[in-house]
């Protein structure tokens, strides 16, 4: 499969939601005193392993042309890049992108360690294949799979327990945006989803603001 630059860049289609603010509007808070991060969620794409490896190879080549990206904690002033492929592709995608310092993560995990939970994936499993990050509370998991704040909170804690970094996704719906309660909704999500997370653990938590109404619109 031949990949154009546009296709390769599409792997970071959600980059705006997962990019730390490194501009002049940065708040004077310890939460912003981290290396900027740009992450691409592949969702349920592409269709085959061959396509995934081709995409990873092409993306890595494209990223090599960008001078402001680097691995986590590599050096100051550059942006860490993380990819979130579907579960079956994680290990082999990591083999390709890891050589260039690109991290990989899991799109979600279950909060139990093991058991009769058909179709679920444990934190230990994704950790064992090289994941450094896990998405928690993505809007599609909240809406399509009824992922509650209680469950999201349990997942955040489980990810931290296994030494990985949760990316907590928060954001308001179109109705909530129209009502002008964006701040209240996000504050409530942060309060519930991070309940019991220590100040020390917060150093390993990324909060991604992703307004549900803007997904796929370019706004």
Order of helices and strands: HEHEEHEHEHHEHHE
Terminal-residue CA separation: 30 Å
Percent range for β-strand residues: 5-15%
Structural class: alpha/beta
Low-confidence stretches: 1-31
How is this fold's topology laid out?
Layout: H1 5-9, E1 37-41, H2 49-63, E2 69-70, E3 79-84, H3 90-97, E4 103-106, H4 123-128, E5 133-136, H5 139-144, H6 149-161, E6 165-170, H7 174-178, H8 182-193, E7 206-209
Parallel strand pairs: 1-3, 2-3, 3-4, 4-5, 5-6, 6-7
Helix pairs in contact: 2-3
Describe the overall structure.
The chain is α/β, with parallel strands linked by helices. Helices cover 32% and strands 14% of the residues. The chain is built from eight helices and seven strands. Strands 1, 2, 3, 4, 5, 6 and 7 form a seven-stranded parallel beta sheet that branches. The two termini are 30 Å apart. 31% of the residues are buried. Mean pLDDT is 85; it is low at 1-31.
Characteristic key phrases:
219 residues, alpha/beta, 7 strands, 14% strand, globular, disordered N terminus
Summarize the structure.
This protein is of the alpha/beta class. The chain is built from eight helices and seven strands, in the order H-E-H-E-E-H-E-H-E-H-H-E-H-H-E.
């Amino acid at each position: 499969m031949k990949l154009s630059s546009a296709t390769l860049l599409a792997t970071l289609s959600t980059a705006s939601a997962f990019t730390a603010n490194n501009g002049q509007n940065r708040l004077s808070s310890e939460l912003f005193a981290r290396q900027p991060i740009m992450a691409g969620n592949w969702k349920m794409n592409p269709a085959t392993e061959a396509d995934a490896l081709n995409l990873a190879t092409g993306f890595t080549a494209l990223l090599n042309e960008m001078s402001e990206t680097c691995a986590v904690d590599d050096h100051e002033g550059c942006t860490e890049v993380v990819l979130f492929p579907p579960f079956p592709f994680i290990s082999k995608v990591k083999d390709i992108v890891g050589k260039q310092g690109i991290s990989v993560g899991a799109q979600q995990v279950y909060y139990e360690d093991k058991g009769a939970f058909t179709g679920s994936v444990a934190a230990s499993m994704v950790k064992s294949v090289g994941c450094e990050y896990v998405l928690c509370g993505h809007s599609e998991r909240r809406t399509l799979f009824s992922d509650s704040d209680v469950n999201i909170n349990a997942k955040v804690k489980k990810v931290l327990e296994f030494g990985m970094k949760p990316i907590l996704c928060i954001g308001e719906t179109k109705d909530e945006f129209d009502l002008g309660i964006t701040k209240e909704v996000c504050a409530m999500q942060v309060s519930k989803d991070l309940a019991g997370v220590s100040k020390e653990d917060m150093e390993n938590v990324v909060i991604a603001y992703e307004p549900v109404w803007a997904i796929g619109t370019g706004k």
